[in-house]
Amino acid sequence: MNRERCEVETERLRRFFIDGDQFEARAQKLSSLVDRLDEEAFSSEVKIFKALADINRLKIVKLLKEGELCACELTVALGNSQSTVSHHLSVLKNAGVIKERKEGKWSYFRLSDGAVIELLNQAKLLINE
Prior knowledge:
By secondary structure, the chain is mainly alpha-helical. It has two domains: 3-35, no CATH class; 42-128, Orthogonal Bundle (Arc Repressor Mutant, subunit A), CATH 1.10.10. It is built from seven helices and three strands, in the order ααααβααββα. It has helices at 3-13, 20-35, 39-52, 55-64, 71-78, 82-94, 114-128, and strands at 69-70, 98-103, 106-111. A three-stranded antiparallel beta sheet has the order 1-3-2. A hairpin with a 2-residue loop joins strand 2 (98-103) and strand 3 (106-111). The longest helix has 16 residues, at 20-35. It is elongated, with a radius of gyration of 22 Å.
């Protein structure tokens, strides 16, 4: 949200507050929060969440939690065509979720780092709440 629009919307908020001092404090806090929003960071985060929002890609990530696998092993494990698995691997790789290592004509995949595992663990906690 741009700064001018934020100011207009903040003025609309004024009607919800009886206490003018409370409104000023809340408006200042809201303005500070809006200033810290980083649209570029959102783009990267959305890319990651979209990559993980497909059941086949999530299956790949869960399989890779156990360690590096080659593309052919992932194809067998998922029971999908090579081209389908390749597409999903490409989406995950472009989002930075997985890394690829080539060895001759073989491609091996692994999770980028522990943050992906932590993200999955946190999702599990949200489900169990």
